[in-house]
Specification:
Blueprint lengths: L40 E3 L6 H8 L6 H4 L4 H4 L10 E5 L4 E5 L1 E4 L5 E4 L21 H5 L3 E2 L1 H6 L2 E5 L11 E5 L7 E12 L6 E16 L7 E9 L8 E4 L18 E7 L11 E4 L12 E6 L3 E3 L14 E3 L3 E11 L4 E8 L8 E3 L3
Antiparallel strand pairs: 1-2, 2-3, 4-5, 6-10, 7-8, 8-11, 9-10, 9-12, 10-11, 13-14, 13-20, 14-19, 15-18, 15-20, 16-17, 18-19
Length: 364
């Protein structure tokens, strides 16, 4: 089942078994409707993701935490879903349940029997979104915001006057390390401009490799000594450094933003002009705008402004006034990394190609 696809480090769904008192939040939310042709059950298969599974039951797959009656705190420490387990659609309660089999309860009724798996936890569990696509965007500085660019330490010289540095070579760095000892080297790329204001909100960063501090600058000196620990591409004098941050283990729980968000697509990655499902894009909104990891947005083509040519005909006689056509929804976007003013998102589904300048906003 591959109707939808995503990525990330293993968020897995909790088992929730509650009685009649646990009416799902989805049943009370008109945005979280089940598909008219939703199946009664789905057997989890290797390669499934939680988003995939939700897409077989729900009109909007990002609603899956709601139809399990879970909150984000509960999902942060989940029991996990494994291949071979069965997802049941409890139509009477309007929610999904997890069980391994149906067992008789009393004449004329059946009871869902949960199974908690205790061996090999995490090894074969089903992720929320499939790993692989976003991993480089989690660990490498592919976007650098303007304030970070201005203050970044830089390579000023190389040992032996080498033009380029490779693994185990020595580099001399100038700048404030702010207590960090592990860095990534990058080269600024093209500026990212806000499609509306045209202001530069950041730069693409060309990732070069990693360096480790060997000796901090002595008092009165300007230069720190570094060793290149990994080289993806050649680096040299003038290239910049950004501290390496540990890649967090994220629970990718989809949810609407806490506040209304109206963003634009800044850039598309993988060297394409038109993006589709599983492409990564950046948008011009970040944590200062109310976005966090897991926020789900809907993508729209901006409605065109056209002349109403029919207005000048017949009894209307209004000339050719300009009218703006409505924005057209073309997909959904899952936010997986957030900076101050910019965020990365993965296109989860797309009915039309997504382009720079398209709108990304809070689900209606």
């Amino acid at each position: 089942m591959k109707n939808f696809s995503t990525v990330g480090t293993r968020l897995l769904l909790a088992m929730a078994f509650s009685g009649a008192s646990a009416m799902s939040a989805a049943a009370q939310d008109s945005r979280c409707e089940f598909r008219p042709n939703a199946p009664d059950q789905h057997t989890v298969a290797r390669g499934d993701t939680l988003w995939d599974i939700a897409g077989t039951f729900l009109q909007k797959p990002w609603c899956w935490p709601r139809v399990w009656g879970l909150n984000q705190a509960e999902i942060a420490d989940p029991h996990w879903i494994y291949p071979g387990q069965v997802i049941w659609f409890d139509r009477a309660a309007g929610r999904l349940r997890l069980g391994s089999r149906l067992t008789p309860a009393e004449p004329g009724t059946v009871r869902l029997s949960p199974r908690e798996r205790t061996e090999g936890l995490g090894k074969d569990a089903i992720p929320a979104i499939p790993p692989g696509v976003i991993e480089p965007f989690l660990a490498q500085p592919l976007i650098v915001e303007s304030d970070e660019l201005k203050d970044a330490p830089r390579i000023v010289a190389t040992a032996g006057n080498r033009v380029f540095l490779g693994k185990d070579d020595k580099a001399y760095v100038r700048g404030n390390l702010k207590g960090a000892t592990s860095f990534q080297a990058f080269r600024p790329g093209k500026p990212l401009r806000d499609p509306v204001t045209k202001a530069v909100v950041g730069h693409e960063a060309h990732y070069l490799g990693t360096l480790a501090l060997q000796k901090e600058a002595a008092p009165g000196a300007d230069v720190h000594t570094f060793i290149v620990t990994g080289a993806k591409e050649e680096m040299g004098a003038g290239d910049l450094l950004m501290r390496s941050e540990p890649v967090p283990i994220q629970n990718y729980v989809p949810h609407p933003p806490a506040v209304p968000v109206n963003a634009r697509v800044l850039a598309i990655y993988d060297g394409v002009v038109h993006a589709g499902q599983n492409h990564v894009v950046s948008i011009n909104r970040g944590k200062l705008d109310g976005l966090d990891v897991g926020a789900t947005l809907e993508l729209y083509h901006v409605g065109q402004t056209v002349a109403d040519r029919s207005a000048s005909k017949g009894w209307h006689n209004l000339g050719n006034p300009q009218v703006r056509l409505p924005d057209e929804q073309v997909g959904s976007l899952f936010i997986f990394r957030v900076f101050k003013h910019v965020s990365y998102g993965l296109i989860m589904q797309a009915t039309e190609p997504v382009v720079v300048g398209d709108v990304a906003r809070t689900p209606e």
